[in-house]
Amino acid sequence: MTKLELAKKKMEHVDWDVTRRETVEVGGVLLTKQTCDIWDKIWAFQAKPDDLLIATYAKAGTTWTQEIVDMIQCDGDIEKCKRASIPDRQPFIEMVTRKTLPTGLEKAEAMPSPRTLKTHLPVQLVPPSFWEQNCKMIYVARNGKDNLVSYYHFHRMHQMMPEPGTWEEFFEKFIAGKVLWGSWYDHVKGWWEAKNNYRILYLFYEDIKEQPDQYCAHMRNNLPNWNPRHEIQKIMQFLEKELEKEVLDKIIHYTQFEVMKNNPLANYTFVPPEIMDHTISPFMRKGTVGDWKNYFTVAQNERFDSEYKQKMAGTSLTFRVEL
């Protein structure tokens, strides 16, 4: 039986009772009721010094980063990276699905060290033990406009996410921070500030996405070399891994969007279609920068820019909304 078949088999015969999740506030941040029901356990989670935590706002390149990290840790060995689906390789610590399935927390606690874990929690809700143990963390931030569009489509296709409403309604919820995992503005700023005091590698989706041919254009403007190779090398250095050029080339190839989109252990097609309906929108949809232009009206763009200016005032954090 293949790893994909095993991943699918785990989800067979489960009474999913697929309904849109209710939300509850924890510290002013919306989380699912199921997560809140075990919040004391999540908060008390015991991190270990050699844990690696991958953190992002939802739909900011999380799975992409997870696959890059796993390939680096596995020295580019494709077969090792096929050992299980993404959520089994790198548990999502605050995820709760069904009572008959282990929570992300239980998966994490059962894993041998060294562990790589995932979270969408804002910095203030990360279990204290991660800070106490001075764990390494990788945070990836995506520009808010594209993040909003991707998150909207994720809500549409994921039948256990809160009801998104219309595009116009979801836009307003996102701007107000009334979505799961809270305000995008607070999230990216909180982690940006935390990197000054903890071992956090802060990366940008747009930098990883930028291609070498775009770099050549940037050179004419005296901008630095931002491309997948450069960003993946940053991760390697952070993880204290030295890999040959051929291995790095292999990692770059296998973590391209189109390649990952066809990887059944990373593209979430192992999840039953009644939960994730890829006919509505694929989990891995476009993976581009600037898709927001296809959705934002002129008024919405002006509104977002105005909110951004107000809520991001005083921070040195900046984003690119196009390449």
Automatic annotation (TrEMBL):
It is an enzyme of class 2 (transferase). The keyword Transferase applies. Keywords: Transferase. It comes from the Eukaryota. Its EC number is 2.8.2.-. SUPFAM superfamilies: P-loop containing nucleoside triphosphate hydrolases (SSF52540). It holds the Pfam family Sulfotransfer_1. Residues 49-214, 227-315 form the Sulfotransferase domain. PANTHER family: SULFOTRANSFERASE SULT (PTHR11783). Belongs to the sulfotransferase 1 family. This is Sulfotransferase. The lineage of its organism: Eukaryota, Metazoa, Chordata, Craniata, Vertebrata.
